[in-house]
Amino acid sequence: MKKITYLLFCFTISSFAQKKWTLEDCINHAKTNNIDIAKQQNQNQSFAEDVKVAKGNYYPDLNFNASQGYSLGNSFNVSTGVGQRESRFNSFSLSSSLNVFSGFLNKYTLNKAKLTEQKGKLDIDVLALDLSINITNNYLTVLFNKEILEVAKEQVKISALEEKRLGSLYSQALTGKNEYLQLQSTFASDKKEVLIAENNLKTSLIKLRELLDINLIQDFDVEDISLSDFESSAFNTEIQLIIKDALEVNPQLKSAEINQKISEQDIKIAKSNFYPKLNFSYNYGSNYFGILGEDDVVFDQTTMQFIDNGFFVQLDNNRTHFLSLNLSVPIFNRFKTKSNYNKSKFEAETRKIELENQKNELKNKVEIAYNDLLTAKATLEASKVAASTQEEAFNIVSEKYKDALISNFDFLESKSNYIKTQSELVKAKYDYLFKIKVLEYYSN
Q1: In angstroms, how far apart are the furthest CA atoms of the chain?
Q2: pTM for this one?
Q3: How much is the pLDDT for 13?
Q4: Which residue, 123, 251, 346, 426, could crosslink 147 as a Cys pair with Cβ 3.0–4.6 Å?
Q5: Would you say residue 298 lies in a domain?
């Protein structure tokens, strides 16, 4: 069975390895397999059991008790003057108790248990949100490093062509050694940048793979995305509406709101200890007693005969019913009840302050994320223009360099500017994509 399970697991991993993972694949896989989420789910099952227990407080309990004992060895009872012989005895009872009134403690305990269960579900959403942001960041880092690697490879191609062309000219004594060596140095530097970019890509893939806990996949890779996949409606929405949506749907804030409600129930629970408590109890029991080695009979003075007094006869004759009401009125318990009540109010006030603080923090985060998104979009547009114009300028410089109309220094400077603008465009693109997702996670 273990072998079959292992083979199925390997097959599943292999099927994932045969395709590139999308961002949605990564997030869904992480939510399903994340350890922290699994721990919270187990905790939530415990919270559900607490709700059952709180509901059960409204019902009476029921207990059955049975005992059997033996008295061995002969003895003499001084008070009665009767010899005690070896005997056995049995007793049976059913008991039940019901809380009639306890200052509404059962009601508030049930309310708290239900709220705690709700908070547990929201805490899973909080973990999922943080996980989604973390995975998105790592996913986009992989794609960023991919494009940076392509930029670096393109520069190597350009340098390789120029190194070959200039080497031919140098062999024909048509160019100086200094220019040729300078280009060779640039060529070597470009190849080094490729190695660095390849290492950065591998590292980012490993980090994403570890975050997803899929270390068995060796050829793990992710699907490319385009700007159109991340179109945001935020540009057509007023910032106040985005903040309003965030305050309504953000799971961390909703969890804090539930936490405050829990503290309010704690106040009521503490207050219930000021009230009297009334309990009802009922007990039904019977017993049997017999002398070892003798028949279970008694002498009936009416009939002047011995009659049966066996086990079941005694149980029937010895039946008892006990009913009671128990009232407990708290008068003084060394200030403990009052102190607990005050502390619960202080805790509720603290959670209220924390809730308001979290609201303000969320508002600020959304506003900052919105402004960051606007800045990222403007930066992306500017980077597109800069990259396009610099590419055109570099093409012109390259043609002039081939015709020996400009110096080697001017060519390398133009090439450096071209690389810089291409890299900045890639950075601006993925910074913009990440800013879109961050704002979406806050407000959706």
Answers
A1: 148
A2: 0.81
A3: 47
A4: 426
A5: no
